[in-house]
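Reopening: F-box domain-containing protein still failing for me.
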Amino acid sequence: MVLKLQPPIDTSATSSLRGSRINFIRKGYAQLPQNVLIQIFRHFNEEELRKTIIPVCQQWRAAAENPVLWKTLKFSGLKINTSVINNKIWQFSSAERITMNNIKEVMPVLRQICRCCKNLVHITIRHCHEISEDSLRYLLVSCRNLKILDMKGTPFQSLIFCEELAYSKSLCSVNFSDNKYITLKHISSIVVNCHNLNGFHMSIFQPINKIYLTDPEINCLFSQTNYRLQSLTLDCSSLGSATFSAILRCKDLEYLCLNFAYNLEGNIFQMLGKSLEKLKVLKVRFGHQIKDNQFMNFFDDSSKLEVIDFTGCNKLSTFGMKSLAQYCSNLKTLIIRNCKNVFTLESVFSRCSNLEILNIAFCNKLHFKEKCKMPNLKELFISDDKRLKMLADKLKATNRDLLLKMCESEFNKKSKSAFAPNGTCYFFRKRHPDYRTN
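Support: Ran it again with your exact input. Result attached.
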Protein backbone atom coordinates (compact mmCIF):
# COMPACT_ATOMS: atom_id res chain seq x y z
CA MET A 1 0.00 0.00 0.00
CA VAL A 2 1.35 3.35 -1.07
CA LEU A 3 0.47 6.41 1.01
CA LYS A 4 0.11 9.53 -1.13
CA LEU A 5 0.71 12.77 0.68
CA GLN A 6 -1.39 15.75 -0.45
CA PRO A 7 0.24 19.19 -0.58
CA PRO A 8 -0.81 21.54 2.25
CA ILE A 9 -3.86 23.68 1.52
CA ASP A 10 -3.45 27.43 1.81
CA THR A 11 -6.32 28.56 4.05
CA SER A 12 -5.88 32.23 3.23
CA ALA A 13 -6.48 31.81 -0.52
CA THR A 14 -6.96 29.01 -3.07
CA SER A 15 -5.74 29.20 -6.65
CA SER A 16 -6.71 27.64 -9.97
CA LEU A 17 -4.37 27.36 -12.96
CA ARG A 18 -5.92 28.49 -16.24
CA GLY A 19 -3.37 28.83 -18.99
CA SER A 20 -0.61 31.00 -17.65
CA ARG A 21 -2.78 33.03 -15.19
CA ILE A 22 -3.45 32.25 -11.54
CA ASN A 23 -6.83 33.44 -10.19
CA PHE A 24 -7.04 33.92 -6.42
CA ILE A 25 -10.30 33.42 -4.57
CA ARG A 26 -10.04 35.86 -1.67
CA LYS A 27 -11.28 35.05 1.78
CA GLY A 28 -11.78 36.98 5.03
CA TYR A 29 -13.60 40.21 5.91
CA ALA A 30 -10.69 42.34 4.73
CA GLN A 31 -11.07 41.01 1.16
CA LEU A 32 -14.85 41.26 0.73
CA PRO A 33 -16.13 43.21 -2.28
CA GLN A 34 -17.09 46.81 -1.56
CA ASN A 35 -20.81 46.31 -2.23
CA VAL A 36 -20.88 43.50 0.36
CA LEU A 37 -19.04 45.66 2.91
CA ILE A 38 -21.56 48.45 2.38
CA GLN A 39 -24.43 46.08 3.15
CA ILE A 40 -22.67 45.00 6.36
CA PHE A 41 -21.87 48.56 7.40
CA ARG A 42 -25.54 49.55 7.12
CA HIS A 43 -25.96 48.02 10.58
CA PHE A 44 -23.64 50.65 12.13
CA ASN A 45 -24.50 54.26 12.91
CA GLU A 46 -22.36 57.17 11.77
CA GLU A 47 -20.48 57.47 15.06
CA GLU A 48 -19.53 53.79 14.97
CA LEU A 49 -18.42 54.10 11.35
CA ARG A 50 -16.18 57.04 12.20
CA LYS A 51 -14.59 55.61 15.34
CA THR A 52 -14.51 51.86 14.68
CA ILE A 53 -14.79 51.01 11.00
CA ILE A 54 -12.89 53.72 9.10
CA PRO A 55 -9.53 53.31 10.96
CA VAL A 56 -9.27 49.57 10.11
CA CYS A 57 -7.90 49.75 6.56
CA GLN A 58 -8.16 51.65 3.28
CA GLN A 59 -10.67 49.22 1.80
CA TRP A 60 -13.00 49.51 4.78
CA ARG A 61 -12.56 53.28 4.76
CA ALA A 62 -13.61 53.49 1.11
CA ALA A 63 -16.71 51.39 1.79
CA ALA A 64 -17.61 53.17 5.05
CA GLU A 65 -17.44 56.60 3.39
CA ASN A 66 -20.03 55.68 0.80
CA PRO A 67 -22.72 58.44 0.89
CA VAL A 68 -25.60 55.97 1.25
CA LEU A 69 -24.37 55.10 4.77
CA TRP A 70 -24.29 58.68 6.05
CA LYS A 71 -27.79 59.89 6.85
CA THR A 72 -26.76 61.97 9.89
CA LEU A 73 -24.04 64.65 10.02
CA LYS A 74 -22.97 66.51 13.18
CA PHE A 75 -20.67 69.53 13.45
CA SER A 76 -19.81 71.21 16.75
CA GLY A 77 -17.30 73.82 17.91
CA LEU A 78 -15.86 77.12 16.74
CA LYS A 79 -12.56 75.52 15.68
CA ILE A 80 -14.04 73.52 12.80
CA ASN A 81 -13.12 75.11 9.47
CA THR A 82 -16.11 76.16 7.36
CA SER A 83 -14.58 74.69 4.20
CA VAL A 84 -14.28 71.30 5.91
CA ILE A 85 -17.98 71.38 6.82
CA ASN A 86 -18.98 72.37 3.29
CA ASN A 87 -16.86 69.59 1.78
CA LYS A 88 -18.47 66.98 4.03
CA ILE A 89 -21.95 68.25 3.13
CA TRP A 90 -21.05 67.99 -0.57
CA GLN A 91 -19.56 64.51 -0.07
CA PHE A 92 -22.56 63.21 1.89
CA SER A 93 -25.30 65.05 0.00
CA SER A 94 -27.85 62.30 0.71
CA ALA A 95 -27.85 63.19 4.43
CA GLU A 96 -31.30 63.49 5.98
CA ARG A 97 -30.34 64.91 9.39
CA ILE A 98 -27.77 67.67 9.97
CA THR A 99 -26.80 69.13 13.36
CA MET A 100 -24.69 72.27 13.82
CA ASN A 101 -23.85 73.41 17.33
CA ASN A 102 -21.89 76.60 18.01
CA ILE A 103 -20.05 76.70 14.68
CA LYS A 104 -18.22 79.82 13.50
CA GLU A 105 -19.84 80.67 10.15
CA VAL A 106 -23.30 79.24 9.76
CA MET A 107 -24.49 81.27 6.73
CA PRO A 108 -22.10 79.71 4.12
CA VAL A 109 -22.89 76.27 5.51
CA LEU A 110 -26.62 76.91 5.25
CA ARG A 111 -26.24 77.93 1.60
CA GLN A 112 -24.27 74.72 0.92
CA ILE A 113 -27.05 72.68 2.53
CA CYS A 114 -29.63 74.36 0.31
CA ARG A 115 -27.57 73.50 -2.78
CA CYS A 116 -26.74 69.88 -1.93
CA CYS A 117 -29.16 68.31 0.56
CA LYS A 118 -32.49 68.05 -1.22
CA ASN A 119 -33.55 65.08 0.94
CA LEU A 120 -33.04 66.91 4.24
CA VAL A 121 -35.65 65.98 6.86
CA HIS A 122 -34.22 67.31 10.14
CA ILE A 123 -31.92 70.31 10.67
CA THR A 124 -30.60 71.56 14.02
CA ILE A 125 -28.81 74.92 14.23
CA ARG A 126 -28.10 75.61 17.92
CA HIS A 127 -26.20 78.45 19.59
CA CYS A 128 -24.85 79.94 16.36
CA HIS A 129 -24.53 83.54 15.18
CA GLU A 130 -27.57 85.41 13.86
CA ILE A 131 -29.05 84.13 10.59
CA SER A 132 -30.80 86.26 7.99
CA GLU A 133 -34.47 85.69 7.28
CA ASP A 134 -33.81 85.26 3.55
CA SER A 135 -31.51 82.30 4.25
CA LEU A 136 -34.23 80.55 6.23
CA ARG A 137 -36.81 81.22 3.54
CA TYR A 138 -34.42 79.75 0.97
CA LEU A 139 -34.02 76.69 3.20
CA LEU A 140 -37.77 76.06 3.16
CA VAL A 141 -37.90 76.39 -0.62
CA SER A 142 -34.84 74.20 -1.25
CA CYS A 143 -35.57 71.42 1.25
CA ARG A 144 -39.23 70.66 0.72
CA ASN A 145 -39.14 67.46 2.77
CA LEU A 146 -38.04 69.29 5.94
CA LYS A 147 -39.99 68.03 8.95
CA ILE A 148 -38.06 69.29 11.98
CA LEU A 149 -36.52 72.77 12.33
CA ASP A 150 -34.56 73.24 15.59
CA MET A 151 -32.94 76.66 16.06
CA LYS A 152 -32.57 76.87 19.83
CA GLY A 153 -30.25 79.71 20.84
CA THR A 154 -29.72 80.91 17.24
CA PRO A 155 -31.27 84.37 16.73
CA PHE A 156 -33.08 85.48 13.59
CA GLN A 157 -35.55 88.25 12.86
CA SER A 158 -38.85 87.36 11.25
CA LEU A 159 -40.95 89.70 9.15
CA ILE A 160 -42.76 87.07 7.08
CA PHE A 161 -40.82 83.85 7.77
CA CYS A 162 -43.12 82.64 10.58
CA GLU A 163 -46.13 83.22 8.32
CA GLU A 164 -44.47 81.36 5.44
CA LEU A 165 -43.94 78.30 7.64
CA ALA A 166 -47.61 77.53 6.99
CA TYR A 167 -46.79 76.83 3.33
CA SER A 168 -44.31 74.10 4.25
CA LYS A 169 -46.48 71.01 3.92
CA SER A 170 -43.95 68.65 5.52
CA LEU A 171 -42.96 70.72 8.59
CA CYS A 172 -44.24 69.10 11.79
CA SER A 173 -41.97 70.37 14.62
CA VAL A 174 -40.19 73.66 15.42
CA ASN A 175 -37.89 74.83 18.23
CA PHE A 176 -37.28 78.59 18.43
CA SER A 177 -36.18 78.71 22.09
CA ASP A 178 -33.94 81.48 23.41
CA ASN A 179 -34.49 83.86 20.47
CA LYS A 180 -35.19 87.39 21.66
CA TYR A 181 -36.76 88.33 18.32
CA ILE A 182 -39.53 85.72 18.59
CA THR A 183 -42.65 87.30 20.08
CA LEU A 184 -46.08 86.11 21.14
CA LYS A 185 -47.41 87.19 17.74
CA HIS A 186 -44.95 84.89 15.98
CA ILE A 187 -45.89 81.96 18.23
CA SER A 188 -49.60 82.46 17.52
CA SER A 189 -48.96 82.62 13.79
CA ILE A 190 -46.93 79.40 13.80
CA VAL A 191 -49.31 77.37 15.94
CA VAL A 192 -52.52 78.53 14.25
CA ASN A 193 -51.40 78.47 10.61
CA CYS A 194 -49.17 75.36 10.51
CA HIS A 195 -51.88 72.71 10.34
CA ASN A 196 -49.44 69.78 10.28
CA LEU A 197 -47.56 70.95 13.37
CA ASN A 198 -47.45 68.28 16.08
CA GLY A 199 -44.36 69.49 17.96
CA PHE A 200 -43.71 72.93 19.47
CA HIS A 201 -40.70 73.75 21.68
CA MET A 202 -40.03 77.01 23.52
CA SER A 203 -37.96 76.22 26.63
CA ILE A 204 -36.70 79.81 27.07
CA PHE A 205 -38.94 82.73 26.06
CA GLN A 206 -37.46 86.17 26.73
CA PRO A 207 -38.87 88.43 23.96
CA ILE A 208 -37.36 91.81 23.22
CA ASN A 209 -40.76 93.52 23.63
CA LYS A 210 -41.18 92.10 27.18
CA ILE A 211 -44.62 90.63 26.41
CA TYR A 212 -44.51 87.15 27.94
CA LEU A 213 -46.66 84.05 27.70
CA THR A 214 -49.88 84.15 29.72
CA ASP A 215 -52.57 81.59 30.49
CA PRO A 216 -55.30 83.03 28.18
CA GLU A 217 -53.02 83.02 25.11
CA ILE A 218 -51.75 79.51 25.79
CA ASN A 219 -55.28 78.19 26.34
CA CYS A 220 -56.33 79.73 23.03
CA LEU A 221 -53.42 78.06 21.25
CA PHE A 222 -54.14 74.70 22.88
CA SER A 223 -57.74 74.87 21.69
CA GLN A 224 -56.32 74.79 18.14
CA THR A 225 -53.73 72.05 18.65
CA ASN A 226 -54.58 69.79 21.60
CA TYR A 227 -55.87 67.05 19.27
CA ARG A 228 -52.57 66.80 17.30
CA LEU A 229 -49.73 67.78 19.68
CA GLN A 230 -47.27 64.93 20.26
CA SER A 231 -44.32 66.87 21.71
CA LEU A 232 -44.38 70.11 23.71
CA THR A 233 -41.80 72.26 25.51
CA LEU A 234 -42.82 75.43 27.37
CA ASP A 235 -41.16 78.17 29.38
CA CYS A 236 -43.58 78.08 32.33
CA SER A 237 -42.08 80.95 34.35
CA SER A 238 -45.11 83.20 33.66
CA LEU A 239 -47.77 80.48 33.44
CA GLY A 240 -50.20 79.18 36.05
CA SER A 241 -52.69 76.43 36.82
CA ALA A 242 -54.95 77.17 33.84
CA THR A 243 -52.17 76.28 31.40
CA PHE A 244 -51.13 73.13 33.26
CA SER A 245 -54.76 71.97 33.35
CA ALA A 246 -55.04 72.59 29.60
CA ILE A 247 -52.00 70.38 28.99
CA LEU A 248 -53.93 67.45 30.48
CA ARG A 249 -56.27 67.64 27.47
CA CYS A 250 -53.42 66.93 25.00
CA LYS A 251 -54.00 63.17 25.04
CA ASP A 252 -51.49 62.29 22.30
CA LEU A 253 -48.44 63.82 24.01
CA GLU A 254 -45.40 61.54 24.03
CA TYR A 255 -42.84 64.23 24.96
CA LEU A 256 -43.49 66.95 27.56
CA CYS A 257 -40.97 69.45 28.94
CA LEU A 258 -42.10 72.06 31.49
CA ASN A 259 -39.15 74.38 32.08
CA PHE A 260 -39.13 76.74 35.09
CA ALA A 261 -42.31 75.09 36.43
CA TYR A 262 -42.37 77.23 39.58
CA ASN A 263 -46.18 77.45 39.59
CA LEU A 264 -46.97 73.81 38.81
CA GLU A 265 -49.11 72.51 41.67
CA GLY A 266 -48.64 68.98 42.91
CA ASN A 267 -52.29 67.96 42.50
CA ILE A 268 -52.09 68.72 38.76
CA PHE A 269 -48.68 67.10 38.40
CA GLN A 270 -49.79 63.78 39.86
CA MET A 271 -52.59 63.60 37.24
CA LEU A 272 -50.16 63.70 34.30
CA GLY A 273 -49.65 59.94 34.30
CA LYS A 274 -53.37 59.13 34.16
CA SER A 275 -54.27 61.81 31.62
CA LEU A 276 -51.31 61.42 29.24
CA GLU A 277 -51.19 57.66 28.72
CA LYS A 278 -48.82 57.84 25.72
CA LEU A 279 -46.18 59.87 27.56
CA LYS A 280 -42.63 58.48 27.23
CA VAL A 281 -40.50 61.55 28.01
CA LEU A 282 -41.23 63.88 30.93
CA LYS A 283 -39.10 66.84 31.97
CA VAL A 284 -40.30 68.99 34.87
CA ARG A 285 -37.62 71.44 35.93
CA PHE A 286 -37.70 73.50 39.12
CA GLY A 287 -41.10 72.22 40.23
CA HIS A 288 -40.72 73.62 43.73
CA GLN A 289 -44.37 73.07 44.74
CA ILE A 290 -44.45 69.32 44.05
CA LYS A 291 -44.25 67.27 47.25
CA ASP A 292 -42.69 63.85 47.63
CA ASN A 293 -46.00 61.99 48.11
CA GLN A 294 -47.27 63.61 44.89
CA PHE A 295 -44.23 62.28 43.05
CA MET A 296 -45.09 58.84 44.40
CA ASN A 297 -48.72 59.12 43.22
CA PHE A 298 -47.51 60.17 39.77
CA PHE A 299 -45.20 57.16 39.38
CA ASP A 300 -48.09 54.77 40.05
CA ASP A 301 -49.46 55.52 36.55
CA SER A 302 -46.21 56.14 34.63
CA SER A 303 -44.76 52.74 33.81
CA LYS A 304 -44.18 53.68 30.12
CA LEU A 305 -41.73 56.49 30.87
CA GLU A 306 -38.27 56.09 29.32
CA VAL A 307 -36.83 59.55 30.11
CA ILE A 308 -37.32 61.53 33.34
CA ASP A 309 -35.82 64.94 34.12
CA PHE A 310 -36.63 66.45 37.53
CA THR A 311 -33.86 69.07 37.63
CA GLY A 312 -34.19 71.37 40.64
CA CYS A 313 -37.24 69.61 42.15
CA ASN A 314 -36.02 69.96 45.73
CA LYS A 315 -38.92 68.17 47.43
CA LEU A 316 -38.22 64.89 45.65
CA SER A 317 -36.73 62.55 48.27
CA THR A 318 -35.54 58.97 48.69
CA PHE A 319 -39.13 57.66 49.05
CA GLY A 320 -40.04 59.17 45.70
CA MET A 321 -36.99 57.52 44.13
CA LYS A 322 -38.05 54.13 45.50
CA SER A 323 -41.46 54.57 43.88
CA LEU A 324 -39.78 55.61 40.63
CA ALA A 325 -37.63 52.46 40.62
CA GLN A 326 -40.64 50.28 41.38
CA TYR A 327 -42.91 51.50 38.57
CA CYS A 328 -40.47 52.85 35.93
CA SER A 329 -38.20 49.86 35.48
CA ASN A 330 -37.83 50.55 31.72
CA LEU A 331 -36.20 53.91 32.35
CA LYS A 332 -33.26 54.76 30.06
CA THR A 333 -32.46 58.34 31.13
CA LEU A 334 -32.74 59.78 34.65
CA ILE A 335 -31.83 63.39 35.48
CA ILE A 336 -32.17 64.48 39.11
CA ARG A 337 -29.63 67.27 38.93
CA ASN A 338 -29.73 69.62 41.93
CA CYS A 339 -32.27 67.51 43.86
CA LYS A 340 -30.92 68.14 47.34
CA ASN A 341 -33.17 65.77 49.32
CA VAL A 342 -32.28 62.52 47.55
CA PHE A 343 -29.99 60.53 49.86
CA THR A 344 -29.64 57.17 48.11
CA LEU A 345 -30.12 55.52 44.71
CA GLU A 346 -29.95 51.87 45.82
CA SER A 347 -33.44 51.11 44.49
CA VAL A 348 -32.58 52.65 41.11
CA PHE A 349 -29.36 50.65 40.85
CA SER A 350 -31.13 47.40 41.71
CA ARG A 351 -34.28 47.76 39.55
CA CYS A 352 -33.50 50.08 36.60
CA SER A 353 -31.07 47.83 34.79
CA ASN A 354 -31.73 49.48 31.38
CA LEU A 355 -30.53 52.90 32.54
CA GLU A 356 -28.10 54.43 30.03
CA ILE A 357 -27.80 58.09 31.13
CA LEU A 358 -27.70 59.30 34.75
CA ASN A 359 -27.29 62.91 35.92
CA ILE A 360 -26.79 63.35 39.67
CA ALA A 361 -24.82 66.61 39.59
CA PHE A 362 -25.10 68.73 42.76
CA CYS A 363 -26.94 65.97 44.67
CA ASN A 364 -24.40 66.45 47.43
CA LYS A 365 -26.19 64.37 50.10
CA LEU A 366 -26.09 61.09 48.20
CA HIS A 367 -24.59 58.05 49.94
CA PHE A 368 -23.58 54.82 48.20
CA LYS A 369 -22.77 51.26 49.17
CA GLU A 370 -19.35 49.81 48.50
CA LYS A 371 -20.52 47.88 45.45
CA CYS A 372 -22.38 49.80 42.74
CA LYS A 373 -23.08 48.16 39.38
CA MET A 374 -24.81 49.65 36.34
CA PRO A 375 -23.59 47.51 33.43
CA ASN A 376 -25.61 49.32 30.73
CA LEU A 377 -24.80 52.86 31.88
CA LYS A 378 -23.18 54.88 29.07
CA GLU A 379 -23.05 58.45 30.43
CA LEU A 380 -22.74 59.76 33.98
CA PHE A 381 -23.00 63.47 34.85
CA ILE A 382 -21.64 64.56 38.24
CA SER A 383 -20.41 67.72 39.94
CA ASP A 384 -17.16 68.49 41.76
CA ASP A 385 -18.06 66.52 44.89
CA LYS A 386 -15.97 63.92 46.70
CA ARG A 387 -18.80 61.39 47.15
CA LEU A 388 -19.91 61.64 43.52
CA LYS A 389 -16.35 61.17 42.30
CA MET A 390 -16.05 58.03 44.43
CA LEU A 391 -19.25 56.69 42.85
CA ALA A 392 -17.85 57.43 39.39
CA ASP A 393 -14.70 55.46 40.19
CA LYS A 394 -16.77 52.49 41.43
CA LEU A 395 -18.96 52.45 38.33
CA LYS A 396 -15.93 52.83 36.09
CA ALA A 397 -14.34 49.79 37.69
CA THR A 398 -17.20 47.58 36.44
CA ASN A 399 -17.94 49.48 33.21
CA ARG A 400 -14.87 50.67 31.32
CA ASP A 401 -16.92 52.18 28.47
CA LEU A 402 -18.62 54.64 30.83
CA LEU A 403 -18.39 58.27 29.67
CA LEU A 404 -18.07 60.72 32.56
CA LYS A 405 -19.02 64.40 32.37
CA MET A 406 -18.43 67.07 35.02
CA CYS A 407 -21.12 69.77 35.29
CA GLU A 408 -19.68 73.23 35.85
CA SER A 409 -22.58 75.10 37.43
CA GLU A 410 -25.95 74.56 39.07
CA PHE A 411 -27.49 77.24 36.87
CA ASN A 412 -26.55 76.13 33.35
CA LYS A 413 -25.99 72.91 31.42
CA LYS A 414 -22.33 73.35 30.61
CA SER A 415 -20.24 70.29 31.31
CA LYS A 416 -16.85 68.93 30.38
CA SER A 417 -14.90 65.69 30.27
CA ALA A 418 -13.80 64.61 33.71
CA PHE A 419 -12.13 61.32 33.17
CA ALA A 420 -8.48 60.35 33.41
CA PRO A 421 -6.99 57.34 31.57
CA ASN A 422 -6.63 55.45 34.84
CA GLY A 423 -10.27 56.06 35.83
CA THR A 424 -9.63 58.94 38.24
CA CYS A 425 -11.85 62.03 38.01
CA TYR A 426 -10.37 65.38 37.09
CA PHE A 427 -11.19 68.44 34.97
CA PHE A 428 -10.51 69.08 31.31
CA ARG A 429 -11.02 72.39 29.55
CA LYS A 430 -13.04 70.65 26.88
CA ARG A 431 -16.73 71.51 26.99
CA HIS A 432 -19.42 68.98 26.34
CA PRO A 433 -22.27 70.10 24.06
CA ASP A 434 -25.81 70.49 25.28
CA TYR A 435 -27.27 67.02 25.82
CA ARG A 436 -30.71 65.99 24.48
CA THR A 437 -32.70 68.87 25.85
CA ASN A 438 -35.16 71.29 24.38
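The first helix runs from residue 34 to 41. If you still see a failure, please send the error message rather than a screenshot.
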